[in-house]
Amino acid sequence: LSPDEDGICSGRYFSESGLVGLLEKAAELFSTGGLYETVNEVYKIVIPILEAHRDFRKLTLTHSKLQKAFDSIINKGQKRMFGTYFRVGFYGSKFGDLDEQEFVYKEPAITKLPEISHRLEGFYGQCFGEDAVEVIKDSAPVDKRKLDPNKAYIQITFVEPYFDEYEMKDRVTYFEKNFSLCRFMYTTPFTMDGRPRGELSEQYKRNTILTTMHAFPYIKTRISVIQKEEFILTPIEVAIEDMQKKTQELTAATNQEPPDAKMLQMVLQGSVGATVNQGPLEVAQVFLAEIPADPKLYRHHNKLRLCFKEFIMR
After folding, report:
1. What are phi and psi of 3, to 5 degrees?
2. What is d(CA 68, CA 314) in angstroms, rounded to the nearest whole number?
3. Which InterPro entries does this chain map to (predicted)?
4. What pLDDT does 123 receive?
5. Lowest mean pLDDT: which of 46-50, 208-212, 293-297?
6. Beta 222-233 vs 181-190: how paired, if at all?
7. Span 130-157, average pLDDT
8. How far is Cα 24 from Cα 74, in angstroms, rounded to an integer?
9. Domains in the chain, CATH or no CATH each
10. pTM, whole model, 2 decimals?
11. How crowded is residue 122: how many other Cβ atoms within 10 Å of its Cβ?
């Protein structure tokens, strides 16, 4: 701050009580927004000031608000809703500066893909005319040469928060897994001959990880993407990932407190019964029937065998 500027330091908020007032307002808003853990962080700044003034009345009030916040954390547990995320890409010269830009949008908790798709289509339809806007239905990379230059294209994909393994050590609670998020992932299944889905032995997968400029939750509900990484998983790696996921679901269902028989029943049916993308039996027959000829695949082969060992144990 430059003290010579008129009115900056004489504003009514530029005082200790002004600061406390603003922080209390912030805590209240965080509480309304269901971010109870941050209420505690805000009051950590307020409490020392109140203690210095020996303002016991306000301290009583503050601690009762903190108690309420902690109670809410305990009572609401996993039922809290933090938002759904979508990647939105804009293609076409009609968008001007937005052309080829990608954003991550944060939507209210249970927003389905058709809802955001309908909203954006309506909004840009008003800007450019309804016939000029088209939503790209898949999440495959967009080939600009195949697009009509007179149209505006929007590609919308559901994305999930992405963490490295080391990050998961610090992100233990449900809140930590949904706060301060700046990396998101979506997967695109594909086969070498261009079809999205095929037999187990030819099913590849592209994992795309996006990094946003700021972390969610943020002042705005859309943040631009500043980095994009892609990883291709080979069919055996896709199988390993599937088996790990099934094992995790089984573990979660068997360790649930209190036990939930219905949930376990569903997970078991999904794990053992043959589903759309064939069950574990099929995976074992395709990838583990014989030792691979290519030495590069030994590691994956062993990893998949270990996955099955863990899976059967569960």
Report:
1. -65, -20
2. 39
3. DOCK, DOCK_C_lobe_A, DOCK_C_lobe_C, DOCKER_dom, DOCKER_Lobe_A, DOCKER_Lobe_B, DOCKER_Lobe_C
4. 93
5. 293-297
6. unpaired
7. 89
8. 22
9. 16-76 (no CATH), 81-233 (no CATH), 237-313 (1.20.58.740)
10. 0.81
11. 11
